[in-house]
Amino acid sequence: MLCYTFMTIKFIHTYQGEIKVIKKSHLTKLFTIGALALSLAPVSIAAKREVKIGAVFPMTGPVATYGQESVNGIKLALKKINQEGKVSINLTVEDNKSEPQESANAVTKLINSDQVDAIIGSVASSNTLAGAPIAQTNKVPLLTPASTNEKVTMTGDYISRTCFTDAFQGVVMAKFAYENLKKRKMAIIIDNSSDYSKGLSKVFKKKFKELGGKLVSDEDFAYIQKDTDFRSLLRKIKRTKPDAIFLPGYYTEVGLILKQARQMGLNMPFLGGDGWDSPTLQKLAGAAVSGNYISSHFAPDDKDPRVQAFVKEYEAAYGQKPGVMAALGYDGILVMANAISNAKSTKRSDIQAAILATKGFVGVTGAITIDGNRNASKSAVVLETTPSGNVFNTKVNP
Ligand code: PHE
Known about the structure:
Blueprint: H1 2-22, H2 26-44, E1 49-57, H3 64-84, E2 87-95, H4 100-112, E3 118-121, H5 125-137, E4 142-144, H6 151-154, E5 159-161, H7 166-180, E6 185-191, H8 195-211, E7 214-215, E8 221-223, H9 231-240, E9 244-246, H10 251-263, E10 270-272, H11 279-285, E11 292-296, H12 305-318, H13 324-342, H14 348-356, E12 361-363, E13 366-368, E14 380-386, E15 389-396
Parallel strand pairs: 1-2, 1-3, 3-4, 4-5, 6-7, 6-8, 6-9, 9-10, 10-11
Antiparallel strand pairs: 11-14, 12-13, 14-15
Helix pairs in contact: 1-2, 3-13, 4-5, 7-8, 10-11, 13-14
The chain binds phenylalanine.
């Protein structure tokens, strides 16, 4: 410390002395720049910042494609980050098995045993909601790239997200149903085990009714995660004759619901949110995915050159097109790395302050600005689901 202070003083002294010299001639100017560079060297070469980041993702269980894609996206971004040379990230991935309790355990482990500087994750809102209070209590920055439920960031000032919220996504789909598809009488099916599903359905209902739409019943039709037979529920809905159905669930159950619904002659459009967005939906539902629409964060067929460059880079690395979670994971870790390189130090409180200062960070899922509620205000895309993949329909700005 003494030595550092001494060098700083010496540097200022040299700098002030030489500023006058600069004006004299080109020759002395060149010499001065060299001398200045030398005198700057000991204090200005910033050491590469080394940090430990914990990642909590569903690598197994009903939403496993989200974890696998997220980690692929994050690893692709890490190559870039480590090459740039400002930040070196040591990543520890924990599998939460698509379960809230496992998510809480993973966060505890990352903080207590691995002593990570920050955490990225998770995907399903109920899982993030289970881990976030532990990160908050320990004042460890936790950034989710994908959890859209309103309550997530309300946990506290150490919890932020780089995606939009369901308050936005729900409105986008209610308007799409009413204005674009001209639907007037809808049924709603929710996943009662998911905070995401319950929150998103509330926003949708409120907006759809405000626009003038009607619901076939005030009560939602409900199932829970891991259910496989939806026929009695669908039979009840069929009797109410809706002209469209809002189904804010995750792809595993949604795939089965769509298939069973079409077999029972329910041929109206189904609408959903980002939770449908996985290639496994197409595998489970087959032809039954046709004619339905969802809101999401990213469209691989978006013409934006930044998106296309990412799609190419991802395909070269993994031999397949990136799904939405690959793009969200990629952007999430890039925002974190950017914050770490801008932070005053690698102290957790400084990293968190830098994450919250993120403004206009241009990612593959849009421009990311963290607002006063630690959410990102970003555009959404509406996609049509087809057996060969989701097709871009419209982009909606906040
Ligand atoms: N938004 C979903 C949730 O909060 C998670 C999700 C994000 C799913 C992106 C798919 C794609 O639970």
